[in-house]
Amino acid sequence: MLAIGTLAKRTGTKVQTIRYYEEIGIMPEPGRTEGGQRRYGDAELDRLAFIRHSRQLGFSLDAIRELLDLSDSPGRSCAEVDAIAQRQLRDVEARIDRLEALRAELHRMIAECGSNRVADCRILQVLRDHGECLSDHAKAET
Amino acid sequence: MLAIGTLAKRTGTKVQTIRYYEEIGIMPEPGRTEGGQRRYGDAELDRLAFIRHSRQLGFSLDAIRELLDLSDSPGRSCAEVDAIAQRQLRDVEARIDRLEALRAELHRMIAECGSNRVADCRILQVLRDHGECLSDHAKAET
DNA sequence: CCTGTATCTACAGTCGCTGTAGAATAGGGG
DNA sequence: CCCCTATTCTACAGCGACTGTAGATACAGG
Ligand SMILES: [Zn+2]
Ligand SMILES: [Zn+2]
Ligand SMILES: [Zn+2]
Ligand SMILES: [Zn+2]
């Protein structure tokens, strides 16, 4: 049986994060010692490892919750699992596209500025006016 | 003189966002009507446009605050402006690198799954064990 | 003057944690 | 067996950058 700190170390998680996962119901309420401290077994270790690795791959906690639910039905088709992963892939690709547009604009405005005075800094001119941009980088968040 | 809703429409901002910018001190407190409603002039319109465009290019509000401060000293060298933009570029490039690693892993795990049963879904296997990954996608956030 | 839209303040909620305070517990050394 | 320190406990606030809500008030057109 593992104390929460041991579980944290083994999975590269902060202790508070584990408690947070319990609070939002993505980790189960574990057994407790007489004094009220959480004790974990191997099942919880595996589950937390799954959550952390999925987070590292960019899945939202909601998506991970679905994935965990699905993996409890081993006989089922994995079509839904695949759909979640495909959504995640499309999301990542959309972010990349957006960031590449940003990179191009940033690169260009930096290149055009020869470190003059603020009054005629190309970077500030571009920031003042999207008309100076070449791409349609606008849209959503970073 | 523009009401807040007009300013919002002209800059593609939500009304609450403008009030939020005022609250955190990145937009000035504007004049008010007798009844207490905010009224804006062209200077504020320009400032808000600068903020919004910079946000679209991924700059943090803190960075934007610095940029706005710097652009108030037209005679100064723009070296600091350039440094902020370079930081932003490096940040964007780091995000792209990370997202491309994620994209590769996601793409691979999706390709390896032929939509079988959950019990032997490659996607779930990879999520359970980072050892199945080829790249070191771990690190920071998305 | 009336009505409907816009604006006002204040506050809660989003996502995924992270940090803090103050109290209680666990476990090892003497 | 006692003590001490490290760990854990609960509860809550804060991050960044907004977004949404409720209930009250102001403005503008007809
Ligand atoms: Zn410059
Ligand atoms: Zn632009
Ligand atoms: Zn599958
Ligand atoms: Zn991995």
Automatic annotation (TrEMBL), chains A, B:
Molecular-function annotations in GO: DNA binding; DNA-binding transcription factor activity
Keyword tags: Coiled coil, DNA-binding, Transcription, Transcription regulation
Keyword Transcription regulation (UniProt): yes
PANTHER family assigned to the protein according to its UniProt record, in alphabetical order: HTH-TYPE TRANSCRIPTIONAL REGULATOR ZNTR, REDOX-CYCLING DRUG-SENSING TRANSCRIPTIONAL ACTIVATOR SOXR
Species whose genome carries this gene: Roseivivax isoporae LMG 25204
Source domain of life: Bacteria
Any coiled-coil regions, as ranges: 82-109
Domain HTH merR-type: 1-70
Keyword Transcription recorded: yes
Name recorded for this polypeptide: MerR family transcriptional regulator
Record-linked CDD domains: HTH_CadR-PbrR-like
InterPro entries: DNA-bd_dom_put_sf, MerR-type_HTH_dom, MerR_fam, Tscrpt_reg_MerR_DNA-bd
SUPFAM superfamilies reported for this sequence: Putative DNA-binding domain (SSF46955)
Pfam family, one: MerR-DNA-bind
